[in-house]
């Protein structure tokens, strides 16, 4: 059981909840803080103090005063009117992350929402009642208003959910679990939707996949090194310490460890003096990706524990301040950074694929074909990789540099962070397929070189890959192989492998 405090949620804990079905609960201290904040809101309502979002309209309507008897209708109207999301739903794991992150943010005690509503969000997480949330429609700077409104619909028994493998009306799912819809009171609708949880949830899931993919990319690159008789000298510790980047040093160390007992790598001057950059510069390029991912991780873990709604309530209601913590710029820039970083893993991988299949660049059979000419072998796999890499370049265009004013120019600068996070996620999926293609080609190349000469760790990875994708003895529908291997790379438990590797370095 993971205890939410509003201040201490980690990516590792998110992974446990999202992928290992770990349950969560709210700390008693945090619930007390939320209750005190709620009491401050109720006092404001009873005293008829004019405070944005509690008894006023929203956005450009912030100057419109709402009478006490209408504050519940105000919240209901807010949720319904703002549920304007369009397009395909977010993946279920992302929507679940969104609910979890919203609950954690509200537990900070600055939002004025009843503990009852927070506990309902936690129930949704623990019972896997997952809101259907369209992916498109957020500007990422009044919070993720449209996506979070679809989340909030579930709390009041409206909208749709994924539950027990089916898509259904929220009310039906709640009734199946013996839960009643809640009626939102003053400020609670706004507290549910004013935040960055859509872009952050998408970013968290993307980061967790990107981190695993970055580790896998190194092991696949090591196998390519063997398939091309790569020169190991370029990975010598002295070279990378001389430059000084920790992530570059670490990447080189992992590659050396993978290939420490390989009989397929060479020394400089043995076959050639230097390798091409796509082999020789693996630590520099992959290391730079790790630098970016470390930055992304830092920003995500801050945002996961941030108060991002508006207004925020301090000092038992004595201070209620309209600020801009809902603005998604920190995450927007981080997501754009992740897009570029992961796209580069695909970029360099595709160049290694070319070196594996191009007979002018190696001494292997052309396109790794068992019968060159009669059979095309891996020729079009390289085409597919090139197409995915080119698509990544388009998706990597930064979203955070764009802004379109909204709400009658009251909200005149927005982050587009949710677009950035969605595009980052697509780049990750594309990159995984490129790496799957590299792995297929590398496995074929090492067969020509001699599997018995492989390093222990790369051979182990090769054997796992061969359980899914057989050797190319005859042309076949390679699309199926690529997708099968990509899905395995996404779902394989790589954590134990990495723990063993870290202990041995």
From TrEMBL:
Could you tell me what reaction this enzyme catalyses? L-histidine = trans-urocanate + NH4(+)
Example of a GO MF term: histidine ammonia-lyase activity
**What's the PTM story here?**
Contains an active site 4-methylidene-imidazol-5-one (MIO), which is formed autocatalytically by cyclization and dehydration of residues Ala-Ser-Gly.
Instruction: Give the sites of the cross-link named 5-imidazolinone (Ala-Gly).
Output: 141-143
Q: What pathway is it annotated to?
A: Amino-acid degradation; L-histidine degradation into L-glutamate; N-formimidoyl-L-glutamate from L-histidine: step 1/3
CDD domains noted in UniProt: PAL-HAL
A GO BP entry is: L-histidine catabolic process to glutamate and formate
The main location is cytoplasm
Which top EC class applies here?
A: lyase
**Entry EC number(s):** 4.3.1.3
Protein name stated in the entry: Histidine ammonia-lyase
Q: Which gene encodes it?
A: hutH
